[in-house]
Structure formats: structure tokens, C-alpha cells
Amino acid sequence: MNIILKIIRYQIHDISRSKWLVFYTLFFFLITYGLTSFSNDQSKVILSLLNVSLIIIPLVSIIFGTVYLYNNKDFIVLILSQPIKRSVLYLGLYLGLVIPLSFSFVIGTLVPLIILGNKIPVQFTLLIFLFAAGLSQTIIFVSISFLIATWNENRILGLGLSIFTWLVFSVLYDGLLLLIINVFQSYPLEKALIGFSIFNPVDLARIIVILKLDVAALMGYTGAVFQKFFNTNLGIIISIMCLIGWTVVPLIIGKRKFSKKDF
Amino acid sequence: MSNRNGIKYYLKWLFCFLSTGLIKNSASLFLIIGFLLPGRVNFSKSLLVGSNQYFKTIKSALSAANNGDTILVYTGVYNEHSLLVNKAVKIIGIERPILTGENKYEIMKIKSNNVLVRGFLFKDTGLNFIYDNAAIKLDSVKYCTIEENKFTNNFFGIYLSRSSNCVVINNELEAFHTKETYSGNGIHLWQCREMIIKNNKIKGHRDGIYFEFVKKSEIESNISYSNLRYGLHFMFSDSCRYFHNYFTKNGAGVAVMFTKNVDMSNNIFEYNWGGAAYGLLLKDISDSKIVRNQFIKNTCAIYFEGCNRVTTLENNFLENGSAIRLMANSMDNLFTRNNFIGNSFDVNTNSTRSYNTFESNYWSEYKGYDLNKDGIGDIPFRPVKLFSFIIEQNRPALILMRSLFVDILNVAENIFPSLTPKTLIDSKPKMTKYL
Question: Is the pTM of this model over 0.90?
Fold first, then answer.
């Protein structure tokens, strides 16, 4: 435990000096600041932020994670020469990246909201939802990126794979869904679609966004089915379980790979 | 003596008086006019009804009354049902007496012209599908006024049929039904002409205001909310106007059907949510106007089916699910100078062609530019997105709303339109919103 904390502390220290993290923070700061100063409706601001972060956070997390692991190969090899368990090192590296990334996202969005906060009333439930969505995306996609980086020795292939993974989750998956919807037009697809979308963390967060943002458009049978599922305890528990699954499964597989890996 | 002889006689008499110069002051002139118009002289009396008054029941007062009398009803509970008003009387409640139908009967039936009913609380007419029990029913009458009454828990509230020139004003109606089939309408008009429905509040009925075969009437400044079906249900009623009304949270919004020359202006349609709920449902409407209305947060703000030559002018569409759903059988409609702000879909249509005109509207979704600074965007706006077209044919695809993939599709379709109607464009989109 002590060793994990040490590794995490070193990591945070190291990454904090990275100019990319500063850019990342600055990006959220500017977006939030811009949106807040242009709009008077904070719920709108938060929902637009959610929309932006659903594209940006997975992309940045997955690329940053992959590149980070490749770049620190020397450091990892060095640490491995010490009497440290590999799983502990892997977990330390993971948390050491997730914590600063999450932190910069939270700081980047929260500071402008506080600065301009007295201009408009704060919507706490939406704010909490924004942070929950952002943090879960970070946790999940760093976990996936670590798996990709440990699996592939080839940097180019690894980086390509992570971009492709992002593309799958954000774009191609939805394309596939649209295809399914079109092919099986004459069947009641609502429940099946909920099943499909649960297996994509980006979609899951997006659906909860539209349930908040486009309530009026979603009225009708389709919307009612979604609403019924995502507003019940069972639906929420299943969604959270899926998000946890998306974090834990790649992490465990990655750790196993990492433990057996010949550096 | 016949009437004509009588007039001659009077005229002769008057002439004598004038010529002999006997009249010097105005008092005697009035006397003469009084004699001249014997039929017009109205010795109307007031009949008092109450527990301490001469008449104990309204029924006895009604049978004792003559045309033109006033019946003053003091406060109290009157268990009198099926009151038949067949004389031109004013029935006025003092401190809101209660008339109840004991959950079985209808309360008052008016069958005479020139009746006024004011200041009562009508409650508890029972359910009856044969007689359509109503708190007040007016049948084949003219010039009646129903004002400042309250109605609670009635099957039908005010039921007018085959009548004309009546006024329903400042009433409050409330019902507590839960099923459409077991509830009646608040203000129900059937085969009427030149009526005025003004300043009423209607809640919890099946349809707040119901118009069928009504001509040249006005619905003004009413509030119709939380009704089970429509806030206003309007059919076969040519040349009517409704304006300054507020319709909100009705089961299915407002429906206007099978009518020509309707003028709908300055109304507010708000929070009509549901799969079959419309801010304003238009079916087979022609030559009508929708002007300066507010459509706020409805599932669908206006639904056009089989509508021709309808002008939609200077309305605000704010945060609706879809602002306009335009079915393929609607033609020659004009949409101009409207604000479309923050709607999930601006225009949905099920056709690849469009014979309607969109011009000079403000669209918050518009991303064009204005290089010559004339306030009009330089590139045309296509309000129908590919995605809204997909949704129209395939509702479950709603799950992909706001996905990056859908945004990419929309951009591609916008550049090379292939599925969305090519002619459905606003060629002069306004850069800033209309105030």
C-alpha cells in the first residue's frame, strides 16, 4: 500500500509538469468560461459541457494513457529491478495518471463556474452529473489505454489502436446501431437498444444527457421506455455496474499481461 | 282598436299638446313619452330567495316570476336540480349560493332568451351519458349571459347548443375526473353563432373548451389547463377567432380541425408533453392565421396535417421537442418572421418534397455568416436535418440523438442533400432574433 502511494505521488509530481496537462486544464477552463459568460442559463451551460466532454475526455484519456506508458518504459524497467510487485506498480501507474487527469478536468470546469457563479444560480444535480460523467469516462478510457499499451510493443500500432478504439466507441458503434435500427425497423427495438447502449460507456452517458436535455422530444413510446429504465433503481444499478465493468475488466486483463510481460 | 289606429291616436294627441303650447317643462314631456310607449314600460320586480325570505326555493321564485324580473338568491345550499328557466329573468346569487345536482341530476336548463346567471357555485352533477348532464345547459336561446360563476365536479360545465349571441365570461370551472371516457367538457358549444367566451378558467375536464359547428365566435383570454384531453377542441367552426388564451399541461394540447378562416393569435401553448400531445394540432385547416403565439416546451409545437394556405407569422418556438411537424399533404403554407430557439428539431417532415415556403425566420441552429451586414444570412438554412428525417420514419433511432456520428451525418447531408427535401429551405435566414 505504501509503495502504491509512493508511486502515485511520484507520478502526480511528474505529470503535473507535463505541458499537455496544463493545456487540458486550460481547454476546459476556456470552454466553461466562454459558455458561462455567453449564456445566462447554467443548466444549458452544463449540458453543453457534458456534450463536449463526452467527445474530448475519452479521446484525451485514451491517447494520453497510451503515450504515457510508452514514454515511461525506461522508468518502468528501472522500477521493476526493485523488489516491487508488478501488480502494485501497474495499479500505481494507473491511479497516478487517473488522479491528475480527473483533477485537471474538475479544476478546469469548476473554477470558472465559481468565478462567474454569482451571476447565475448553481444547478447541483446537473453539476454532480457532469463530474460523475467526466470522471467515469476518464477512469474507463485510461484503463483501456493501459491495456492497449501493455498488449502492443509497437508504439505506432498501439497509438493507432487507441484512436481506433475511441472512434469505435464515439462514432462507429452508433453507426452500427443505426444500421440495426434500420434493418429491424418493424420490430419493437427499444429494449434491445437499451441493452446495446449500456455496453458503450460513451452512449450510456450520452443517453442520460438527452434524457435531461431533450425531454420534450423524447416523449412518446421510445422516450418512455428509456425514461422508465434509466429512472428506476434497477436501471441506475445496471448502468453503474456496466461502468465499473468497463473499468475493472480492462484493468485486470492489463495487469495480468503486465505481470507476464517480458520487458 | 287596432295597433295602427292607436299610434295615429297618440300622434294626434301629441300634436294637439304641442300646438296648444301646453307643455312648458320637461317633466310633462317625460310623462308624454311614457304614454307614447306603453309596451316598453317595465315594472320589473325583484324576487328574493333564501331561508329567511319569501321564496324558500328557486323553483317557486321561477314559477312566480315574469319576463324581466330579477331573482336574488341569498347564500346557502339549494338541493334543487333540473331547474327550468323559460322566462327572461336575471338570476343573481348573493355571496355565492351553492346549487348542487346531488351527483345524479343536471342543475339548470335555460330555454329562454335574455337570461343572466351570475354569482353561483354549481357542483356535483352526476354522470349521465343519455342526457349529458351539465351544470348549465342552454338550448336554442339568444342573448344569454353566464358570468362570474364557479363550477366544481360537474360532468359538463356550461353546455350551449343551437344558440347565438351569448356571453360566457369570468367563470371558473374545475373537475376531478381521471378518465377521458367518464368526463365531460368544460365549456361545450355545439351549433352556435356569434358567441363570446372570455376570461374563464377551466381545469380537469375532458376538453377545456369544445367548439363544434360554431360560427363567427370569439374565445378570448381564457386559461385552460390540466384537462384530460384537449385544452381547446375546435372542429367545423369557420370564421372564429381565439386570442390571448393560455393553454398548458393538457393531455393532448390544442386541436383545431376541419375548419376555414380561423384566427389564432397571441396565445401561449406551454408544457404539452406526451407521445400524442401537440401544442397545436392542425388537421384540414385552410386560409387561417397563426400570429404572435408562444410555443414553449411542447413535445411538438405545431403539427400540420392536410393544411393549406395557413400563415404562421411572428411566433416564438422555444425549446420544443420538434417545433413544426409538417406532413406531406400540407401545401402552400407560409412560415415567416418566426423565432426558432433551442428546439430539439426545428422542422420534421415525412416527405422528400415540400410545397411550403419558409422565409425570413430566425433559427438558433443557423451557423451561416452575413458578410454584407444586412442582417440576413448569406447562405440558406435547411431546417430539416437528416436525423429528424430518420426519426420521422423510425422512432427508436431517438436513442442516437446528439451522437457524434449523427452530427457527422447531418453535416454531410447538409452539404449534399439527398434524402431531405431540397426545396424546404429558408433562403433568407435572419441573423438575430425578432423581438
Answer: no
